[in-house]
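Quick one: structure for this chain?
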Amino acid sequence: MTRGQARGAGADRAMAEAPAFRRVGATADGAMKVLLGVVFAACASWVGDLIGVSSLLMWSSAAALLVGGVVELACVRSRSQRHFTRLMIAYDSGWALAAAAGLLTAWLGGTAGGELWTGYQVVAPLVFAGLLLASGPMRTAPAPRPDAPRSAV
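Got it. Here's what it folds into:
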């Protein structure tokens, strides 16, 4: 093995390790959705009363969060982390906007703030999961053919 090949092997090893590190964020995001879905399901009437929404909406939100989180966890290894990151930024940006709109509605004396925020939790995880599934598995570089000539460099 030449020096260049050894350096290339080290770079290949570093490239293989990088995606595993990047998957931590996507895994944590999916786990958080699952945890939030479990909490919403376990405390549907209490949380619903607290933010002024029906238990049915809380149950719907719990189901959507569980589905979204499970799909996210299932796709962590097979989808592009770049695509994952873009989807997480879009989801979290929407979440922040929905939370701000809900708080503003409540601050102005409206009663739909809880429905707005919880409604986002019903729709957004399902859209996120659908986009993630539609993206398809990430493409990998084709394996070198055994009969292909190797460069001497």
